[in-house]
Design goal:
Blueprint: H1 2-5, H2 19-22, E1 32-37, E2 40-45, E3 48-53, E4 58-62, H3 78-96
Antiparallel strand pairs: 1-2, 2-3, 3-4
Length: 99
Amino acid sequence: ICELAGLPTQEDIDAQSIVPVLNGDAIEHRTEAISRITNFTLIRTRRHKLVQHINDTPELYDLEADPDELRNIAQEDRDTKIDLRSRLQARLLEGQWRR
């Protein structure tokens, strides 16, 4: 929205321009989204959601095969869990979510 208004981007926020989507140059705005609440952090892609609880018990769901998130596949699909965990940590370490 800052870009559309001709304003400089704000520091310390996790934001990306939506202009490419509005102009038809891109289909998606983001490939992933993260959320952080007191007791957990999560990363969600189009296909998967990884929830990292404060007690370090991960939950991983395949949203295509299990849209109701009834089956935790964190132990079965370790490669996806490791990939998403590293992507989540990278985003958090960028400083965008430090408060």
